[in-house]
Specification:
The complex is a heterodimer of chains A (about 280) and B (about 450). With about 280 residues, chain A is an all-alpha fold. Chain A has two domains: about 130 residues, Four Helix Bundle (Hemerythrin (Met), subunit A), CATH 1.20.120; about 150 residues. Helix content of chain A is about 75%, strand content about 0%. In chain A, α2 runs antiparallel to α3 and α3 packs antiparallel against α4. The longest helix of chain A has about 35 residues. Chain A starts with a helix and ends in a 15-residue tail after the last helix. Chain B has five domains: about 90 residues; about 90 residues, Kinase associated domain 1, KA1 (TATA-Binding Protein), CATH 3.30.310.80; about 35 residues, no CATH class; about 100 residues, no CATH class; about 90 residues, no CATH class. Helices cover about 35% and strands about 35% of the residues of chain B. In chain B, the strands form five sheets. Chain B has an eight-stranded antiparallel sheet with strand order 8-7-6-5-4-20-10-9. In chain B, strands 1-22-21-3-2 form a five-stranded antiparallel sheet, covered by helices on one side. Chain B starts with a helix and ends in an 8-residue tail after the last helix. Classes of the chains: A mainly alpha (about 280), B alpha+beta (about 450).
Chain lengths: ~280, ~450
């Protein structure tokens, strides 16, 4: 399949972009930073092309569905969402060093999809339960949310790296100042929370049309709610009790742990979302 | 008197407890932590499974705290109830002041102060009077509420927008209460049941899941037809049931349902959820004469005797089994019957559908096999009624809209202060925003740059 080839190649483009971002940050080279940005843009274009090709291929195979139906496809979309979101943040706020923490996440997601022997990149026809217009809305909202939390996670790591007194002063000085990091993390957490909420809601509406209940405490549903509780705690503690900086950063890292468990860990538990593990 | 004093002394601490944001944080974390427990301990199993898995002592502990069905336990519901109380009290406490800000009328110039964001300043060679109308026009394009106040040495324009966005947070909190109310309505007035209907048959009652009682529907549901199709890989492609609703024996609705497309009638929903095959009632037998090779076909009905044409035999179709075991091996669907001669001699025959030559081993005159049999399915329908759904969905919509407003919109106040100076006039742009200081800083700079570009009637 051409799409798998394109997406495998995209993995290396993301890898190169991540490498350039890290190099630009460590060696403080502006030219490298620009190269990293444009490599990242090329990666996003390759990712979009691979995604679109795969969509077309499902029609050639006669099963015609959006490529959002299994673990491979969701990882492809996840890395697209992370990379795109990061590039938008860079364009808007102009802090290139964040790329050294965000772009590797897009690379890792894509590398996991392309290189892991446990993940099949075969196009499979949709199971009856997945044949719904809610599929696209549900997966897209969830993964935009996850991507925002991933970028928030990268920002929180930066915050801790900057605050760490053992960190070489050189690197620390090339990280945006704490106020900006804190504010940006907050923005990403809010964006993630909005989309996670939308993802849970589209999932609930879908579940109600497929199974006749909008909430059933299936492990994936429950874990998405746990993630929601964690980020809701962070938002309340920040707004009402002034949790900022280090505490907020640690909380956002814990929250991202819950995101990852909702995404990958739940497949170890029995439940209705089992197609996410195939 | 003492009665009221006493109740007040109880109400006030309860109110303070429920109004505390510490309680919110504690409840959210507790809900998260306990929910994890419920995903680790399998829910809704039989006691024997838990005893086998965890041993007797731990089972007693699980049992005491309803941990095998914890999301419906008294303490989990208690946590949710406390959270609801917390949300309601916090909202009631904050709401009057929010209301006052949102509906306070004109923007008072003194209310606009430089917030945490640095003011932006620049100079213009012209007099303040020359700038006033341009500046007002520029600000008016971007803000709904604009007031100008003249000062000793110039003027000040104050502008405000997004007051109403302060209602976003209350909207989010209200939405949670609405959707929890919807869930309550559903659990009080709804039901969750299931029913199996054989093809060609109808039912008028369903079995409820929680207490296994039978509930009449008040109308009949008939399954006209059920079909399952598969992909080449063998994975299921579609389950489809043709359902009919009958009122007093008359068909009022007919619809094909598939997994994501249920039938709804009088508030009751029928969802395609499972299926199975039913034993055949009719079959076609193939009889081959061992010596001449002559073949005969005959149709047999369950529980009936049938004469086999061209012979003096009769066949009695006794039963069909789905998973018949022959010498310990499952041979699948198997017809059990009896061959009878005119003299009353009887021979038991075992006819596995998948192995048509099995009967050869009987060494009878005629070799019997099953050529075809009726394929009959039943469809399994999840049957629910949930009058709380409209409330829950209203909560959903308000929740998303509220989050959007609360997170990405802000109440902003801006002042543009122009005072005469040696070189014309000094302009200072400052203000405050209840959210997003970084974004507001950029916004203030943009406003200042936009004002600086206003050169005598040239509107941007």
């Amino acid at each position: 399949m051409t799409s798998s080839l394109v997406l495998s190649a995209t993995t290396f483009v993301y890898g190169a972009s991540a490498f350039f971002y890290i190099a630009a940050w460590v060696f403080h080279q502006n030219a490298l930073g620009r190269l990293a940005f444009w490599t990242g843009v090329a990666g996003v274009l390759g990712n979009v092309a691979g995604f679109g090709l795969r969509w077309a291929e499902t029609y050639q195979m006669g099963v015609g569905h959006a490529p959002l139906s299994n673990l491979y496809e969701s990882l492809v979309f996840f890395s697209l969402a992370i990379a795109t979101l990061y590039l938008i943040v860079e364009k808007k706020y102009g802090h290139r060093s964040i790329g050294a923490f965000a772009m590797p996440l897009a690379f890792l997601a894509m590398a996991y999809a392309s290189l892991s022997p446990n993940i099949s990149d075969r196009i499979q026809p949709l199971l009856p339960a997945l044949k719904s217009n809610w599929l696209i809305a549900h997966v897209v909202t969830c993964f935009i949310g996850y991507a925002a939390f991933a970028v928030a996670f990268g920002l929180s790591l930066m915050f801790l790296a900057k605050r760490n007194p053992d960190a070489p002063g050189l690197f620390g000085s090339r990280i945006p100042d704490e106020r900006v990091l804190d504010e940006l993390t907050h923005q990403m957490v809010m964006l993630g929370f909005l989309f996670l909420t939308a993802g849970i809601i589209t999932g609930a509406v879908w579940a109600n049309s497929a199974w006749g209940r909008y909430w059933g405490w299936d492990p994936k549903e429950t874990w998405s709610l746990i993630t929601w509780f964690i980020y809701a705690t962070l938002l309340h503690a920040r707004l009402m009790r002034g949790w900022r900086g280090r505490r907020a950063a640690i909380f956002s890292i814990v929250g991202f742990g819950a995101v990852l468990f909702t995404y990958f860990g739940v497949n170890l538990l029995p439940g209705l979302h089992s197609y996410g593990s195939m | 008197m003492t009665q009221t004093a006493k109740s007040e002394s109880l109400v006030a601490p309860a109110w303070r407890f429920l109004a505390s944001i510490r309680l919110t944080v504690a409840l959210l974390l507790l809900l998260a932590a306990t929910s994890i427990l419920g995903t680790l301990i399998p829910q809704g199993g039989a006691p024997s499974e838990y005893i086998g898995r965890y041993g007797e002592t731990i089972f007693r502990l699980l049992y005491a705290f309803d941990l095998y069905d914890m999301y419906h336990s008294w303490w989990f519901r208690g946590l949710i109830l406390l959270l609801t109380g917390n949300i309601v009290v916090c909202t009631l406490k904050r709401f009057p002041s929010v209301w006052k800000i949102v509906f306070s009328g004109k923007t008072a110039p003194t209310s606009v102060k430089p917030g945490k964001v640095e003011p932006v300043a620049f100079e213009d060679a012209r007099d303040p009077e020359a700038l006033q109308s341009e500046y007002e026009a520029y600000i008016r394009k971007r803000f709904r509420r604009v007031e100008t106040e003249s000062m000793e040495n110039g003027f000040r324009i104050v502008a405000e927008r997004g007051r109403w966005t302060r209602l976003g947070v209350s909207g989010v909190h209200l939405s949670i209460v609405i959707l929890l109310a919807g869930a309550l309505v559903g659990s009080l007035f709804g039901f969750d049941g299931y029913v199996n209907i054989a093809e060609g048959e109808s039912i008028d009652r369903v079995r409820l899941r929680n207490d296994n009682t039978v509930m009449p529907l008040g109308f009949e549901v008939r399954c006209e037809d059920f079909n399952v199709s598969f992909y080449d890989s063998g994975a299921p492609k579609e389950y489809r049931s043709r359902l009919q609703i009958l009122e007093n024996g008359k068909i009022v609705v007919e619809k094909d349902i598939i997994v994501n497309d249920p039938l709804r009638y009088k508030g009751v929903n029928f969802f395609q959820s499972s299926y199975g095959s039913l034993p055949a009632r009719e079959l076609t037998l193939n009889l081959t004469n061992r010596d001449s090779g002559e073949a005969v076909r005959v149709n047999a009905a369950l529980g009936r005797r049938v004469e086999i044409p061209g012979t003096d035999l009769r066949f009695y179709f006794r039963q069909i089994e789905n998973r018949y075991r022959l010498r310990g091996m499952d041979v699948g669907e198997t017809v059990l019957g009896v061959l009878e001669t005119p003299t009353g001699e009887t021979t038991e025959v075992i006819l596995p559908v998948r192995f048509p030559s099995y009967d050869k081993m009987r060494k009878g005159e005629w070799i019997v096999s099953v050529a075809d049999h009726e394929h009959r399915y039943y469809t399994g329908l999840q049957t629910t009624r949930d009058p709380g759904v409209p409330l829950v969905y209203a909560g959903f919509i308000l929740l998303i809209a509220g989050c959007w407003v609360a997170f990405f919109m802000a109440h902003q106040k801006v002042a543009v202060e122009v005072t005469r100076s040696a070189r014309g006039c000094a302009v200072r742009v400052y203000g405050s925003s209840n959210r997003h200081p970084v974004g507001f800083e950029t916004f203030l700079k943009k406003i200042a740059a936009g004002l600086a570009r206003q050169k005598g009637g040239a509107h941007d």
